[in-house]
Amino acid sequence: MQFRGSHILSVSQFDREAISRIFQVANEMAPYALRQQTSSVLSGAILSNMFFEPSTRTRVSFGSAFNLLGGHVRETTEVKASSLAKGESLYDTARVLSGYSDIIVMRHPNSGSVAEFAEASRVPVINAGDGSNEHPSQALLDLYTISRELAARGKTIDGMRIALIGDLKYGRAVHSLCKLLALFDNLHFKLVSPPELSAPDDIVGELAARGHAVQHYDEMSSGIHNVDILYVTRTQEERFPSQDEADRYRGLFRLNQNVYTEHCEPNTVIMHPLPRDSRSSAQELDADLNQNPNLAIFRQTDNGVLIRMALFALVLDVVDQVHRNARAVTWYTEKRDG
Amino acid sequence: MQFRGSHILSVSQFDREAISRIFQVANEMAPYALRQQTSSVLSGAILSNMFFEPSTRTRVSFGSAFNLLGGHVRETTEVKASSLAKGESLYDTARVLSGYSDIIVMRHPNSGSVAEFAEASRVPVINAGDGSNEHPSQALLDLYTISRELAARGKTIDGMRIALIGDLKYGRAVHSLCKLLALFDNLHFKLVSPPELSAPDDIVGELAARGHAVQHYDEMSSGIHNVDILYVTRTQEERFPSQDEADRYRGLFRLNQNVYTEHCEPNTVIMHPLPRDSRSSAQELDADLNQNPNLAIFRQTDNGVLIRMALFALVLDVVDQVHRNARAVTWYTEKRDG
Amino acid sequence: MQFRGSHILSVSQFDREAISRIFQVANEMAPYALRQQTSSVLSGAILSNMFFEPSTRTRVSFGSAFNLLGGHVRETTEVKASSLAKGESLYDTARVLSGYSDIIVMRHPNSGSVAEFAEASRVPVINAGDGSNEHPSQALLDLYTISRELAARGKTIDGMRIALIGDLKYGRAVHSLCKLLALFDNLHFKLVSPPELSAPDDIVGELAARGHAVQHYDEMSSGIHNVDILYVTRTQEERFPSQDEADRYRGLFRLNQNVYTEHCEPNTVIMHPLPRDSRSSAQELDADLNQNPNLAIFRQTDNGVLIRMALFALVLDVVDQVHRNARAVTWYTEKRDG
Known about the structure:
The structure is a homotrimer.
Chain A: H1 16-33, E1 37-39, E2 46-51, H2 57-68, E3 72-76, H3 90-97, E4 103-108, H4 113-120, E5 125-130, H5 136-152, E6 161-165, H6 172-181, E7 188-192, H7 201-209, E8 213-217, H8 220-223, E9 229-232, H9 243-249, H10 257-263, E10 269-271, H11 297-315, H12 319-322, E11 326-328
């Protein structure tokens, strides 16, 4: 695909070559995200970071990624603070706001709204989540994390085995990740969920059509052994048709260190799209896993900065200039893992 | 007038010479707003962008204008997030906050509050709207747009004909624009509104006293022919004394392509202070005009960035330094109209 | 103490040597805060300014201090905009967000929460107020102001006399200031409050144990003469056990110019942690004092910028680099007092 000047709206825009290019650029961004070097390549550029739905993690991650490339960030964080509330069309909002910045990141509660906005925008738009529809940078950072975790274990995405656990019916992150994984070869999927929350037929069908192995499990212990990656999501009780159903499955899709030790291969990677719910009623991923070096959930969010820097650099076409504008960081930074 | 270090509170501060100077500087800002060049003239300077009332468009426009000159923006967007809610006086707030920035842009729901704030501030304050009172940068960008649109048609503001349409009684934008237009010579005003929402006597009186022709119309078709500019505003039904009155006028002050073609001279400019209400109950400016090249509403908001850059550059007295700090933009930008 | 890479969570971290170092660096920051020079020492660095409780003054002060050193600021201002609302633990929030910035400033309504957050953070954290617990930069700016005001009068903190007035029971600012003042020698404290709102025993005990003189007053006139500093705080009526108690003391702890002239030594410094309540029901510090040159309340907030710049420069270990990156300010700035 052509990145220069493009909108980033959906994972369906990417083929393997595009993914490979994004990951290669993300790798090049590491010295900046790790605060070894600083670049002023986008000094003078403006990101309009528009969140018409609450989000701390994604909003700050995009904003920081743009700052790391030297750019300014203008932010909008409230629906009620917006002209949308006064009956303005997305077309008008897009035409106006695209005159105020070089690129726009947008989250909106309505499915399809970001694409509609992008059509009228005069600058590139990156979808940071439009309702239940898409959140492509999340899927890319998940896939990038899988790729790096596997590489550290001498493996590749092709041929790997992954268990997807929890609410596979409504989880936007799982669906988008599956669409990207479908592009690879000979994967083995273990879909672990209550039957009421199993993955939609179109997702399962696409995986099968691409020749991947797909198995279904309605309890965790058999679903989580013999895999390379565990991708755990939250199962919200209100998603079940009745409280009786919810009660029946309560606690059956929670991972903790004991369950991990008993059922998983050594060095099985643990992932989660975050936030994980740490209230006692939830705990799909117990805090006793925090010291487990295979818990990759914070490497996922760290990788999110690399992916978002890469998307900015590719869309604004400055990849080759990033290093030319680099200088060493001279303030205190903790030594971090690359 | 003296711009250096001045507050910008009201359109009544400007004479024709001041307006001419602002527009000249706004013209010089075009290469930066169009992302051909970037300037770091205000690198290290801080704008405090204080919006005690919701606004996306004006807030982001001011913030981006300051970023385009290289400066930092600190933003406050909520009344309840403010010490004002704890009984602090505007005097105290102004004295404190003016120690945190080089210039302040302020919107506040109460008429006169920005002027009161400015009196105690130790740095220049720009009024971004104080209730029904003033919003000088809006009036300037409207006038600047009129000037440029007319120039492209071989005309000048002096001698031009303008129709003001809709709610002329409560519309702050219309009132301020009239005060600026009054400074010019031999204008022809067509005031088109329901009688219940006609322009206040003091505005009409001032136009007449300055020797301008003023005609009143209570329906649109005769009001909109033989003019150079249509300035359309929203007519909110709740402004009428009764629903009966509102019903009587519903739809009579809506402009669409058919009405335009039937009644307007070719190339009549269409303006609107925005946001326009695109709900079916409103539509004072129909979406079928979006492809009409004379629809200047998005050029208005684009021009807003130029006007706000000009105000910053003039008040902070850096006009002559802007170009000395310029360098070429090296990231992707769409080709835009100058 | 070691500043490099440290969290700043409590005034109990500081000894006299540390305080002296902070004040020395704060002095060096004056040319930047006064807009005579600008420094780009933290150009490329990112502050995450997280306010899970409303605050304009403290939030903007920290943000501007970071901008004055050349850095970017990413801001979060709402609890409901945060993953904390979705059941995420402070541990997870800290681990994630500390991957997005070089340093974090955090305000949170719960006592102890900032320290808990800091434990999981991979970057330094500065406490900007955690409920009734601590707000160390406020105590430092108060002490710094005392030090500078006394120096201008040929005096030092050692040996000085201070009256603390108002709600001494619940006032976080007073408690923290007392802990810092306790480190000095031979101070004379006059604690002026309604008996129901007198200072906690542990605070008074610590002052006495360090050899300071402490006297209690339940009315103002005798409490405010023969002191160098008046530190006035707000007495909220709802703090009293009954409305009868509140009525009994209403107006007895309000300072105005007449009271000042009648009871205070010439040049007694007037301080207040702000915001002061200017509603007629409050007015603990009357507006008629605004022209009194001894009113130091706005010098306090100005000094806050210096203190916060100093904390950033010390924790990020760039003190020696600030001046190397300096250049003259070339835009309009009002002449201010150093």
